[in-house]
Amino acid sequence: MNRVPVLVVGGGGAGLTASMLLANLDIEHLLINSRPGTSDLPKAHVLNLRAMEILDDVGAADRISEKSTPPEAMAATAFYAGFGGDDPDAGRRIAKLQSWGAGGTDGNWREASPMIQRNLPQIRLEPLLRERAEELSPGRIRFNHELTGLEQSGDAVLATVRDNDSGEQYEVTADYVIAADGGRTVPGLLGIEYEGLGTVSETATLHVSADFSDLAIDDDVLIRWTISPVSGAGVVMVPMGPEKWGPESEEWVIHIQYLVGDPREITDEEVLADVRSAMEIGELPMDIHKISRWTVEAVLASSFRSGRVFLVGDCAHKHPPTGGLGLTSAIHDVHNLTWKIASVLKGEAGESLLETYEPERRPVVARNAQRSLENAINHLGTMAEIGVTPENSTEENWAAMKRLWNEDPADQEFREKVARGARSQSMEFNELNVEYGYAYDSAAVVPDGSPPAPNPDEVRIYLPSTRPGSPLPHAWLDDLEGNRQPIKDLVRPGRFLLIAGEEGDEWLQAANDLAGSAKVPLDSLRIGHIDGDLFDPQLTWIRNRGIEPDGAILVRPDRFVAWRSMSSASNPGQTLAKALTSVLGREVHMPEGAAA
Question: Could you tell me if 99 and 74 are in contact, meaning their C-beta atoms sit under 8 angstroms apart?
Answer without folding.
Answer: yes
